[in-house]
Amino acid sequence: MISLRSPEFVATLTRQIAAVVVVTSGSVNTDDFESYSVGAVGDGSSLTGGVGWNGATLIVSWVPIVATEDFESYSVGAVFNGSNLTNGANWNGAPVIWNY
Amino acid sequence: MAASIVAQHFALDLITDKVLTLGNEEYLRTFNFGSSWTKVRLGVMCSINQISTVPAVTFAIGVCSGKTNGVGAATTTNFVGINLSSDTGITGTLYANYGPPWYASSGGLRIFKKVGSTVTSVGTNNSFILMYSAADLRYCFFVDITKGNPDYTLALHRYTQIFNPYLDTPTFNAAVNSIATPPVSCSTVWTTTLACDESAGALDTFNVFWSNSANWLDVGSLAAIRLIP
Hints:
The structure holds 2 protein chains of 2 kinds.
Chain A (H helix, E strand, L loop, with lengths): L1 E3 L5 E3 L7 E5 L2 E5 L26 E3 L4 E5 L7 E2 L17 E4 L1
Chain B lengths: L3 E7 L4 E8 L2 E6 L8 E10 L5 E4 L1 E6 L11 E8 L8 E5 L6 E3 L3 E8 L1 E7 L14 E8 L4 E9 L9 H10 L7 E10 L9 E6 L6 E12 L1
Antiparallel strand pairs in B: 1-2, 2-16, 3-15, 4-12, 4-16, 5-8, 6-7, 6-15, 7-10, 8-9, 10-11, 12-13, 13-14
């Protein structure tokens, strides 16, 4: 996981980050995360606290997302347009199968 | 034929897996990460339910825009992928040869894009495709697509155990989850580039198309891996 926030800041998370402090000439940018609710932060757009930043945080996850489907959980038979194939992981909705 | 879930028995290994059959049909399913990817890997474990030459077939694996007008439609919104059976356009012959048997396309393979009815492709005659049919045999392919400006890079990887071509689900899943390039148990067949873009539609959907209705494709597993956001 990498956090990007202006002024330019890049960190690789190998431990939990308790606070962020960036010192540039004439300014100090800080965020100690105390003002946020416990929970997932998604893309970081909710992390708008702290001092001296230009806009919210952007978090980009470099953990691969794996979408899978192995058809084992379905009953044998015609699937027609595929709308009943709703299992599998990390898809957005069921598939569509077009017959030509 | 209508696409179906069928039980495919692998007698030598005493395993029965359910597979999706496609005959002149295409499968489209949208990623949960949509078009927000820089590099995606598409995996297909499959076999051809046929032991003789398959004429005039398109076997395409790639990404398209939405689930309405995929690569098999007369007018495609936007598609980028690879055709495993093509000689010049997006249709070719898969010749059954000696062996378990295995198949070789008439002209190698091609990467291509399709926008509307216009196909633009780059091919090679030197890369040999192996694919197995019959009840005890199946195979897998992985297609890596990396966005670029303007050139997208496409790479084809294939299962390496050509003399022991039964591929079980755990082996396929190990390749899927290895993240390595090429995936575990696979080797790279071909890597090349083609200028593509998303102006005609965001590339957010996994698309597999098998165009022959007399000889169908048995799909055992599918996987899509976002390798680079």
